[in-house]
Give the backbone structure.
Amino acid sequence: GLYEKIAPQDAYKTPINFSSVIQGALSNASPAGYNVTFIYPEEGLNTLAQRMAKRCQINYGKRVVKIDVQDNTLYFDDGSQSNYEQLISTLPLNQMMTMTGLTVEEKPDPYTSVLVLNIGAVRGSRCPDDHWLYNPDATSGFHRVGFYSNVDPLFLPKSAQKTGNRVSIYVERAYIGGLKPTDEQIASYARDVVNELQNWGFIDQVEVVDPTWIDVAYTWSWPGSSWKKQTLELLEKHQIYQVGRYGRWIFQGIAASIQDGFYVGASFAEK
Ligand SMILES: Cc1cc2nc3c(=O)[nH]c(=O)nc-3n(C[C@H](O)[C@H](O)[C@H](O)COP(=O)(O)OP(=O)(O)OC[C@H]3O[C@@H](n4cnc5c(N)ncnc54)[C@H](O)[C@@H]3O)c2cc1C
């Protein structure tokens, strides 16, 4: 893994206080970390996104495959193209560099991919009430399991919202950036995860298992690397402005990424 190779970052996520660690191992310690409290939109993230989308012009199903920075042209995978004066982009920084064909001297910083297994199942007798749990010892290889339906029953089918006998779960496993397993490997891993969660009593019969691959999920830096600075500056010289968590190669949550969008929108509107 990358553990001993990358520069330490985001120390606030793991504030280390040894006496609290010992206390936490033996009994309850006071809460610490980056997500002790968090907010969730009352009507769900979908509604928030849809309300923002109503105020924008969005062209769905348009995947950018190439960007020509000499004549400011975007090429899409459906064969169409479009010109731009200035580009605000949330594409991961490494993918943006590949698409523009621009290069810098520094070697690219590393990243981690994540396979998310979404599972809908009959709730097991030992299913916890937590929102998420980190699992360093799962034998099937995942590192975190979270329970959508413990955040809000809206994450269950309507028929199960009142009975509470179902659970909707996400299970995350990290990979070295870009090393996507084959479909057979994913299917075999999914079977192992389901067996393990059944053995733990978190779930009974499974009704849905749906894998999603997030190619750039967590971004890191080599010690002393100036790749990020060099690439962002070079892109800006070509009127390409990177925003958001993957665009700027930083760690932040959804709320901060939405805020980035509002700031950049407002600053361009004032120009
Ligand atoms: C496994 C996981 C769990 C997370 N859990 C949480 C959490 O619980 N709470 C929280 O606050 N944050 C969480 N995050 C972080 C959160 O997802 C990000 O901070 C947020 O999505 C970043 O928003 P963004 O707009 O910068 O990027 P994105 O949400 O990645 O948006 C980028 C957009 O660009 C589009 N795109 C990409 N390539 C192309 C292309 N070639 N052409 C056209 N469009 C393209 C994508 O489809 C996407 O819509 C999690 C992240 C991961 C990976």
Notes: The mean pLDDT is 94. The longest strand covers residues 203-219.
